[in-house]
User: What shape does this take?
Amino acid sequence: MNTNQTGTLDTMIIGGGQAGLAMGHYLKEQNRTFLILDANPRTGDAWRQRWDSLRVFTPAKYDGLPGVPFPADPLSFPTKDEVAGYLEGYAERFTLPVIRGVRVERLWREADRFVAASNGQRWEAHNVVVATGCSQAPKVPGYAADLDASIVQLHSSQYRNAGQLQAGPVLVVGLGNSGAEIALEVSRTHSTSVAGKPGGEFPVKHGPTAARYFLPIVRFLGLHVLTLSTPLGRKAAPAFKAHATPLIRTKSKDLAAAGVQFVPRVAGVQDGMPVLADGTRVEVSNVVWCTGYREDFSWIDPGMLDGGALPPQHRGVALRTPGLFFLGQEFQYAAASATLPGTARDARHLAHRIPRPPMAARESAHAGEKEA
Assistant: This one.
């Protein structure tokens, strides 16, 4: 695709994962002029780059984007590579205007339009949708730098399989779903401990039976009950964002059965080794940080943010900057907002709230599109 813009776009979507593609689908249905800027060289790479054995927690019947059901047994749980392939095929099927390999370095407002810049190129649009998701920058405690240089350290975003680890004990820090699944996997080849406490556990065994009977209830709650439009959802939102998601597939009993040891949280480092909250110094050869992610909007003009963080918004519509929208954020509107089903629902909502530019601007953009 020609990456040189010759007119001001109606809308610019930053982020080419499921959120950006779902938004692109709805904008294309409305015959809007838009581009999707994707930092990855290939659509779906955000999924391909996760650990090898990863499967999604939602059954395939809920994993499709608008217009194309996920091509798998409805009660199965697709692998991360199957999700990546689906997203790549989705972009091709609808010929969505994705420019790949573009990591936006700056976004700012210039008069009545937004400007994005990357590697000497710039794009202008009347509206911008930030669809970079909630897994933006790996979060690792500062004391990780004090660990002995001989220790192999990986964040969960870097972990692919146990073959990356050296011989010797492994400490997995963080007991959310990533920590539980990685700890179970590495326990097959290494002595493994996991530090932290889970944020609860799903009360049923994960699998096809749950997909048929239990997960539809969870989906309904996540989409329609735990929302910012209900008292229950507004009360639950802060805790939902602050705490780890309950363990879904791999539970504490599975880890215990595999011989994984549970230890208190890591409090710091002493003589190059992790120190636990109870003062115990742990001798390890590997540390896998399953400590989540933090927001990173450092590339957005500070005047459009709230002290560097997500600005006040309602269902993705920024309240202080007309034309600025967000999609795919944790509990953006509902508990399921960052999931495949929730992203698609939020994209449909936003697509009907993005204003069309003045007629003269639309004609200019269409003319530029033809020249390109």
Residues 80-93 form the longest helix (14 residues). The mean pLDDT is 92. The two ends are 9 Å apart (CA to CA).
